[in-house]
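Example (one chain per record):
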Amino acid sequence: MNHVWISTAGGDLLRADQIRQINCVEGVRVVTIGGSQFVVAAIEGRHAARSVARGLACAIAEADTWTCAAEVDVVSDGEDWKVRLRQMPEHRTVEGTTKAA
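Predicted structure:
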Protein backbone atom coordinates (compact mmCIF):
# COMPACT_ATOMS: atom_id res chain seq x y z
CA MET A 1 0.00 0.00 0.00
CA ASN A 2 1.36 3.40 -0.95
CA HIS A 3 0.93 6.38 1.33
CA VAL A 4 0.82 10.12 0.98
CA TRP A 5 3.18 11.84 3.41
CA ILE A 6 3.10 15.46 4.56
CA SER A 7 6.29 17.21 5.63
CA THR A 8 5.97 19.49 8.65
CA ALA A 9 7.97 22.64 9.32
CA GLY A 10 9.83 20.67 12.03
CA GLY A 11 10.95 18.01 9.54
CA ASP A 12 8.50 15.29 10.56
CA LEU A 13 6.62 13.17 8.02
CA LEU A 14 2.95 12.55 8.75
CA ARG A 15 0.75 10.09 6.91
CA ALA A 16 -2.04 12.02 5.22
CA ASP A 17 -4.62 9.39 6.18
CA GLN A 18 -3.95 10.31 9.82
CA ILE A 19 -4.83 13.97 9.24
CA ARG A 20 -8.30 14.98 10.32
CA GLN A 21 -8.13 18.75 9.81
CA ILE A 22 -6.10 21.53 8.19
CA ASN A 23 -6.14 24.83 10.11
CA CYS A 24 -5.10 28.34 9.13
CA VAL A 25 -4.23 29.55 12.62
CA GLU A 26 -0.75 31.03 13.06
CA GLY A 27 0.25 29.63 9.69
CA VAL A 28 -0.91 26.33 8.29
CA ARG A 29 -1.32 23.49 10.79
CA VAL A 30 -2.63 19.97 10.55
CA VAL A 31 -4.46 18.12 13.31
CA THR A 32 -4.09 14.35 13.50
CA ILE A 33 -6.80 11.85 14.37
CA GLY A 34 -5.20 11.61 17.82
CA GLY A 35 -5.49 15.38 18.34
CA SER A 36 -1.81 16.32 17.89
CA GLN A 37 -1.09 19.53 15.98
CA PHE A 38 1.84 20.14 13.66
CA VAL A 39 2.88 23.30 11.84
CA VAL A 40 3.24 22.68 8.11
CA ALA A 41 4.26 26.25 7.26
CA ALA A 42 4.65 29.38 9.39
CA ILE A 43 2.84 31.65 6.96
CA GLU A 44 1.86 35.18 7.92
CA GLY A 45 -1.36 36.55 6.55
CA ARG A 46 -4.77 34.95 6.48
CA HIS A 47 -5.17 35.06 2.68
CA ALA A 48 -1.80 33.40 2.02
CA ALA A 49 -2.44 30.73 4.67
CA ARG A 50 -5.87 29.91 3.23
CA SER A 51 -4.47 29.67 -0.27
CA VAL A 52 -1.75 27.26 0.87
CA ALA A 53 -4.24 25.21 2.92
CA ARG A 54 -6.43 24.79 -0.18
CA GLY A 55 -3.37 23.82 -2.23
CA LEU A 56 -2.33 21.33 0.44
CA ALA A 57 -5.76 19.67 0.45
CA CYS A 58 -5.78 19.47 -3.36
CA ALA A 59 -2.27 18.01 -3.49
CA ILE A 60 -3.19 15.35 -0.91
CA ALA A 61 -6.27 14.40 -2.91
CA GLU A 62 -4.27 14.21 -6.15
CA ALA A 63 -1.46 12.16 -4.60
CA ASP A 64 -3.99 9.74 -3.17
CA THR A 65 -4.77 8.65 -6.76
CA TRP A 66 -1.13 7.84 -7.53
CA THR A 67 0.14 4.27 -7.58
CA CYS A 68 3.33 5.23 -5.74
CA ALA A 69 4.13 6.89 -2.42
CA ALA A 70 4.09 10.68 -2.53
CA GLU A 71 5.34 13.55 -0.38
CA VAL A 72 3.58 16.89 -0.06
CA ASP A 73 5.39 19.86 1.40
CA VAL A 74 5.10 23.63 1.52
CA VAL A 75 8.11 25.69 0.49
CA SER A 76 8.87 29.39 0.25
CA ASP A 77 10.89 31.00 -2.50
CA GLY A 78 11.34 34.11 -0.34
CA GLU A 79 8.26 35.88 -1.67
CA ASP A 80 5.55 33.27 -2.20
CA TRP A 81 4.58 29.97 -0.66
CA LYS A 82 4.07 26.93 -2.87
CA VAL A 83 2.72 23.45 -2.29
CA ARG A 84 5.04 20.87 -3.80
CA LEU A 85 3.97 17.32 -4.62
CA ARG A 86 6.54 14.71 -5.59
CA GLN A 87 6.99 10.99 -5.89
CA MET A 88 8.95 9.37 -3.10
CA PRO A 89 11.57 6.70 -3.68
CA GLU A 90 10.24 3.19 -3.16
CA HIS A 91 10.44 1.99 0.42
CA ARG A 92 10.23 -1.41 2.00
CA THR A 93 9.65 -2.28 5.64
CA VAL A 94 12.41 -4.25 7.33
CA GLU A 95 12.06 -5.29 10.98
CA GLY A 96 9.69 -2.43 11.80
CA THR A 97 11.76 0.29 10.16
CA THR A 98 11.37 1.86 6.74
CA LYS A 99 14.37 1.70 4.44
CA ALA A 100 14.87 2.86 0.87
CA ALA A 101 14.76 -0.02 -1.58
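Caption: DSSP finds one helix and nine strands in the chain.
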